[in-house]
Write a structure and sequence with these properties.
- Chains A, B: One of its GO terms (biological process) is threonine biosynthetic process.
- Chains A, B: Its EC number is 4.2.3.1.
- Chains A, B: GO terms for molecular function: threonine synthase activity.
- Chains A, B: Keywords: Pyridoxal phosphate.
- The structure is a homodimer.
- By secondary structure, chain A is an alpha/beta fold.
- Chain A is built from 17 helices and 14 strands.
- Chain A has a domain of 206 residues: 3-Layer(aba) Sandwich (Rossmann fold).
- The first copy, chain A, is globular and about 75 Å long.
- Chains A and B meet through helix 6, strand 7, helix 7, strand 8 and helix 8 of A and helix 6, strand 7, helix 7, strand 8 and helix 8 of B.
- Strand 14 of chain A pairs parallel with strand 8 of chain B.
Amino acid sequence: MPYRAWFQCISGCDEKYELNEIVYQCKKCGDLLEVKHDMDKLRRHSSEHWKKLFDERYRRTRWPYGSSVWGKKEWVCPNVANENVVSLYEGGSNLFWAERLGKELGIADLWIKQCGNAHTGSFKDLGMTVLVSMVKQMIAEGKNIPAVACASTGDTSAALASYCAAAGILAIVFLPKNKVSHAQLIQPIANGALTLSIDTDFDGCMKLVREICSKNNIYLANSMNSLRIEGQKTVSMEIVQQFDWEVPDVVIVPGGNLGNTAALGKGFLMMKELGLIRKLPRIVCAQAAKANPLYLSYLKDFKEFTPIKAQKTLANAIQIGDPVSYKKAINVLKTFNGIVEQATEDELANASAQADKTGLFCCPHTGVALAVLIKLLKKNMIRPDEKVVVISTAHGLKFTEFKICYHENKLEEVNSRFANLPVEVSPQYDAVKTTICRKLEQMSS
Amino acid sequence: MPYRAWFQCISGCDEKYELNEIVYQCKKCGDLLEVKHDMDKLRRHSSEHWKKLFDERYRRTRWPYGSSVWGKKEWVCPNVANENVVSLYEGGSNLFWAERLGKELGIADLWIKQCGNAHTGSFKDLGMTVLVSMVKQMIAEGKNIPAVACASTGDTSAALASYCAAAGILAIVFLPKNKVSHAQLIQPIANGALTLSIDTDFDGCMKLVREICSKNNIYLANSMNSLRIEGQKTVSMEIVQQFDWEVPDVVIVPGGNLGNTAALGKGFLMMKELGLIRKLPRIVCAQAAKANPLYLSYLKDFKEFTPIKAQKTLANAIQIGDPVSYKKAINVLKTFNGIVEQATEDELANASAQADKTGLFCCPHTGVALAVLIKLLKKNMIRPDEKVVVISTAHGLKFTEFKICYHENKLEEVNSRFANLPVEVSPQYDAVKTTICRKLEQMSS
């Protein structure tokens, strides 16, 4: 194969492993791994060559390059043969010009990258396609991998189950018994995953899934797995591509486990190193105030990082007190002149609802990112003339309960300033007309 | 403007209206209108020109042509100026190769066109972008149109509300009081639509919305509006484009109000007339057995058509006994050597679940289309070597309740043959391992 990538320990201890080895962290020092690429080989082509190639493939029909992840295959995971790629046509999501919302917030050049408009409804597809393809590749090479497993209640288990179902590989989801609601789990259930409801807590599940995987050659799709970062980093490339290879000034991303912050930075750095872009954007990591360990670290100039116990937040996918990828994220934020800001429940719910009124349908995590944008505009840390991209991580259709409760003003710690409810009217022309006229007057005043 | 389109009565009475006139049916005979294009002008370019142009624009960044609807603007609605287009990047949805499902069903070349992977989660976006853009155009031309209204509980109101929100135009949704559940309505509510809960039935709402619209210059976004068909017909073009301009043998589409069947046919016919394709596919309209007036008409060779009272079906978006577009759909089916087939509740729910197990996440309407495919394969009316496309109309995330009840085996008239539920396991390594081994044995047997 002309291009090559491998796992390498991020600590500098120089440990390396092949991508088709079942390994999740450094065997020597226990630190995180990252995927490294043979940059010398990639550099043999000019930046113009890569731009042209990526543009030619974008959304076209030649397998598997129409996927915006696999359209950058050489930069992502060259080690997988095309016939082993498990792709559901990732990426290519709308970069929504938030003209109306921007006007309300006083910023002209605001864009929402709608990563949730995806096969399983979240950005997790971007990483999962790489992980499951690598598993299929290993099976094709003769490795005996009977299943892929994870401990997750949310988007990760949904993406894992769907990609495994498409590939015909068993997915196993480990969950604490009392946290299993069928509604939350309907995606893995429908996609045929073996869903284990175990009489223990989340830590107990994590312990069991690790033990089961290590003793039975079952592949662990946890957030430590750095293959997923390789897929997720294509969001940076796609944003720049959608701006005709222009780099925005600021990118805001919600942060929980911090893999996405790390991925975003990795994508921009690789483009800069290979000459496709000349500048880097500022990266802003947006945390829920109820789960803000990185924000607390940022206040101390990242001199220390202390895990916390996350409290319950509406932004439940980022309700994480001890994030796996904090080291990678801090490195990125230092390099990108980064900012970390937090949003309260009230702020994230209202920001999400305000955006919905302009045609979006935001998940609460996107609400966190939008609330942080509003705060940074007020603090003059983002200027009104800057080009800003907000990463929207999941489809709002996964969060209808959150939205219903918001509009019924039933969310704790939230004053629903943009609530909208059906208006009861009697079935007479005049009554209806009066109601409509009143609404039109409100709008014009 | 170089290209031109207008409304024309389908009855042959030769009535014509401009697209910027507020008119929904023929003023002379009351029949449906359709959008007609100046085909002579379109024919001045070769088929190669059009293919190249559509391919060049597909998913690119030049406004508004990256949308797969507006990428075919000259064929869809040339009358709207680009600055008045209200687009959320429609189309470009995955044409999923259902390799595993096809193998199970005994057909090698099966494809699912995932129209539900869209901004508001259904194919309605394709038509609504045209309708709302035309309204914005009329407002820009100086017409006083204070709002756009519809009577709908489902995908239509969601799409209308979102596009109007993006454009800054008031959307009004008319609904019978007892049918208003906030969950069903959360999309229009979140997108700021004025949602009227009226103490009457659905017919009463239709009567009121018509009266309000006609007396107040409010635009009516009902299913009679043929602008929406122009957007929806781009699905045919996109499918062919995604097959590198090859025509599939069969296309299966769920049918309720039958606008989508009409649109599908219109797209293929226009491509044939302008030389982009040489053959037509067979079109199969798939109806729920609980709402099957077209199926009953088909059994009588379309010699008569009698509206029925539709019964409650899981496929609630096609629960329609008196479809608006039946004449257009029958014309299409006659031209395309068409078939109409029906699916019971048991068939549609099981077909949907079977597909989910191979990585999809189907809405019940897609289930109807898949169940019909299974029946027609059994009847040898579709051959195993034919290239078949199934149109998936909405995202499964809109139907989680349907899926939960299916897997709990709680749906009426349905025996859930593919049910999957969490398995309770005690928190010991051996217990978990035994459960996994049992599952793996099941799979290999």
